[in-house]
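seq:
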Amino acid sequence: MSAYTDTIELQKRLKNKNAETILGAAVNNFLERVVFASSLGAEDQVITDLIVSLKLDIPIFTLDTGRLYNESYELITETEKKYGIKIKLYTPDRKEVEEMVNENSVNLFRKSVALRKRCCQVRKLEPLKRALADYSAWICGLRREQSVTREDFTEVDWDGAHRMPKFNPLVDWTEEDVWSYIKEHDVPYNKLHDRGFPSIGCACCTRAVKPGEDVRAGRWWWEEPEQKECGLHLVNGKFIRTKDLNIEDNDEQISIKPTKTA
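struct:
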């Protein structure tokens, strides 16, 4: 069976399962070939706590873009100390960053969506590609409730960009669920959350949100809601649901094509 076919089967088996079951399935199916990509957000801190409490052998990494809030760096230290773990950091290529900012300025992301996506490409997507190179599956803290761009995610999705399954153990959790868990289990979290930051990325691209605003309103706030993704969870620059894909599977070669619509 192909990796994609296996993912569809897992998708059926894990529908409506709890986070512990989903994490267990990730380990049982991929053994030492699964990794957790933590954004250091509240959801990811919950997953870190679950991994440690369940004694799961899942390595954890995060992407250090070079422009994170200091509170995010402090959280890394606090998390490592509390759980006795090491979070591996992946950083962007120095030469690529230098070339990018010298061509377009340090804050190029404010000039256009295209340049903002280039910045995300250099600072996030390329490091993520390196981080996943030695693995066959990855885990992240996506929730359907977070934004309109994430409503169709399932417990495990096929990541066409990296040609592997992506597990979303908290996909059906509410924000209340996340914070109830954090309080009950004394999970360390980014102190910016207490100052109106429900979603935290680079300091230059994240602000606090106003009462009543969407939880991701503070991310790239100068852009339209449907554009507010860095590309970590896209296929060819777009959000494409697994059920909307045609898969051509020739042995180990898998090509992904969006289903044609009328």
